[in-house]
Amino acid sequence: MNNNLNIDALKVKRDIWDIVDYINKMFTNAIDLWASDIHIEPTEFFLLIRFRKDGDFLLYDKLHVENISWMITRLKVLSKIKIDENKKPQDGKIVYMYEKESLNVDIRLSTLPTNYWEKIVMRILKQDESLINIEALWLIDVNLEKVRESLNSTYWIILVAWPTGSWKTTTLFGILKNFNPLEYNIETLEDPVEYNIEYVNQSQVKPEIWYTFSTWLRSLVRQDPDIIMVWEIRDKETAILAVEAALTWHLVLSTIHTNSAAATVQRLINMWVEPFLLASAMKMVISQRLWKKICPECKEVDVLKDIEKRKVWEILGPIIEKSELENVVFYHGKWCEKCWFTWYRWRMWFHEVLVVWEFMEPLIIEKESANVMRDAAIKHWMITITQDALLKAVLWETTVEEALKLI
Ligand SMILES: [Zn+2]
Question: Closest Cα partner for 400 from 313, 331, 326, 352?
Fold first, then answer.
C-alpha cells in the first residue's frame, strides 16, 4: 500500500464547490488508474478513501471527518438515492463523464450504515462495451483459435473465472460479440446487467419474484433462441437445463465457480448432471485468472534467480525449443509515478483452455478425477495456466515471479 498521504487534503473542506471538484478529481484519478472500486470509509476522526486496484488496496486520501456529510450528500445526489436515509443500506448509480476519453463511465454505488456515518463503496464499470471483443481477452494465438473454432458449434462452453465477481463480464461479452446479433437470436440472463448490447435480449435475475436461471431457461424454449448466455450455474436444475439446451442445438455460454477447467467436470457431476449427457454437451472450459500486467513506463530487464530459471525451463521446456528459450529476455516493472510506485499497471488474464475432444468423453463418462483429465488434456496439447502465464512473461506482459505464483 502507498502510504504517502496528501497533507493538503487533511485540511477541512467546507465549501461545497470544493467537494464537487474534489469528487470529480477522485473519479478521474480512479479511472486513470483503472481502479475497480472506490471505498469511502469513515472512522472516528478521519475519512479514508481507498482505491482497489488490481485486487490490492491503495490509500488514495485521508480527509478530516468533518468533510463526510458533504461527501455523502454529494454522492447521494449524484446517484439519485435518498439523502435523508442513513439507517438502511441503499444502492444507486452514477454516470460520470470521463473527459479524457469522452466516455460515460457507470459507477455503481452502495451505502452501508456503520458505527461512524455511512460507508460508501463504488464499483467502476469503466469499459466501453464497444471496446470489448474476443481479441482483447489476452488469449494466446493457439487458444484464441480453439475458442473461435468452438464457437462455430452448438455446444456448451463454460467459463471459470477467478477471482469471482467482476471481469467475467468482459470475457463473456468478448465471446458473445463474436456473433452478429442481427443474424442470431441471442438471449442472456444476467446478475446484474452491466452493459447494454444492442439487439441482444438481456434480462436481469429477480429472485424475489422467482425469476431465476432455471425459470428463465424453461421459458426460453418458446423464445426460439440460438445463443443462450446463463450468467452462472449455481444449482442442479440450472446445470441440467443448460445441458439440455446444448443438446438441443443451442450454443450455451455460462460460468461456474470451480478452481480449474478440469475440476468443472467433477463439479457438474456432483450437481447430478448425467456424465454421458455432459460428455456430449460440453465443448470447452476456459479457466481464467486475473493477473498483473507490467507497467510499460518503468519496465526493465529482469535477471532471473537460478531457481526461477530452472522452473521456467521445466515448465516451458515441453512447448518451446531449448535454443529459443536461451535467448529470451524477461522483464519486470520497477516503479514510477504512472503506476503509483507499484510496478504494475492494468490487469490481464492467464488462461487454460480445455477442449472436450473425443479422448475426453470416456474420461467424463467414467467420472475420472480432475488430475487424470488434466494430464490427458496436456498430452493433447493443452497449454496449462502456468505455461500460459510464462508465455506472457516471454512476451513482456508479466514477470516470471508473478507467473510462478500460480504453481
Ligand atoms: Zn511504472
Answer: 331
Single residue among 108, 125, 142 that ends a domain in this structure: 125
What residue has cell string 451505502? 111
- Gap from CA of 324 to ligand 1 centroid (Å): 28
Centroid of ligand 1 to alpha carbon of 212 (angstroms): 44
Buried b or exposed e, range 28-66, using 16+ CB within 10 angstroms: bbbbebbbbbbbbbbeeebbbbbbbbbeeebebbbbebe
Evaluate whether 274 touches 315 at the Cβ level (below 8 Å).
Answer: no
**At which of 86, 107, 125 does a domain end?**
125
The angle at the Cα of 347, spanning 343 to 348, to the nearest 5 degrees, equals: 125
CA of 329 to the centre of ligand 1 (A): 19
Same domain assignment for residues 94 and 150 = no
Task: Tell how far the Cα of 54 is from the centroid of ligand 1, in angstroms.
Answer: 14
Quote the pLDDT of residue 129.
Answer: 61
Protein residues placing their CB within 5 Å of the ion ligand 1: 295, 297-298, 336, 338-339
Q: What is the pLDDT of residues 36-61, one digit of tens each?
A: 899 999 988 888 999 988 778 889 98
